[in-house]
Design a protein that fits this description.
The chain is α+β, with helices and mostly antiparallel strands. Helix content is about 25%, strand content about 45%. It has a 13-stranded antiparallel beta sheet with strand order 6-5-4-3-2-1-13-12-11-10-9-8-7, covered by helices on one side.
Length: about 240
């Protein structure tokens, strides 16, 4: 009888701990969602145009991204007088790269793997708000230090099993870093992205400074120049031009 009572008490304790843990995760997500502007406000965003600038090996680069949320994505990158265009439209994609940058100078279809990787760029908002909306598994792992600041470490797991580590500031409730593995040129590589300089645009929070590893070595910093919410976008810009 004593053994049974001990077992029941142990199970009860585990259940209580589990519920408390889940509530803590939900509390963090709720605070993060509120800091980002709120789910209702984000739901009103149907289109967006974002302009960025960054520098790679001394070259100044400008980019413009046009989005029809959840459907289409077009990015134009200008470097040394040349323009690289990348488009995802539904489940298909195409790109146009100058010959000097490894392309043909003509519109070409993107491989299915690249389309899959780039499809996440059809959304706005943080990895956590999008994961919650899509019903992905989100778990609180620990509270720890990141560069001297207190953060919550959470994981986001997709149905495919792919997971990402997400670090959330305990002070601002914003995502400050993500870590994941991505496929690039047939190889799995570690990806780490840092987010800072959050600013409100139309009541929504956007990180205006993003740092990530530069494929050519070192770190690359991308600065947001402007964010336009719900502009009119002609869907024709996502269609692949005929050669």
């Amino acid at each position: 009888m004593k053994t049974m009572i001990k077992s029941i008490c142990l199970v009860a304790t585990m259940l209580i701990a589990s519920v408390a843990y889940a509530q803590t995760t939900e509390e963090i997500l709720a605070k993060h969602e509120a800091a980002m502007g709120g789910a209702d406000k984000w739901a009103t965003v149907k289109t967006a145009v974002i302009k960025n600038k960054f520098s790679v090996q001394g070259m100044d680069i400008d980019s413009k991204t046009s989005l029809i949320i959840g459907k289409s994505f077009r990015q134009e990158v200008e470097v040394m007088g040349n323009k690289i265009i990348t488009v995802i439209d539904g489940d298909k994609g195409w790109m146009n790269r100058p010959a000097m940058m490894g392309g043909t100078g003509e519109p070409e279809d993107m491989p299915a793997e690249q389309v899959k990787m780039a499809s996440s760029q059809k959304t706005l908002g943080s990895i956590l708000t999008n994961a919650k909306k899509d019903g992905y598994k989100i778990e609180l792992i620990s509270k720890e230090k990141l560069e001297g600041a207190d953060v919550y470490l959470l994981t986001v797991t997709k149905p495919s099993g792919e997971d990402s580590k997400v670090y959330v500031s305990t002070t601002t409730n914003f995502v400050v870093k993500t870590q994941s593995k991505v496929q690039a040129n047939g190889q799995e590589i570690d990806s780490e992205v840092s987010f800072s300089n959050y600013k409100m645009v139309n009541g929504l929070a956007f990180p205006h400074t993003v740092e990530t590893a530069n494929p050519m070595g070192g770190m690359m910093t991308v600065e947001t120049v402007s964010v336009e919410i719900n502009p009119t976008i002609d869907s024709a810009i996502f269609a692949k031009p005929s050669k």
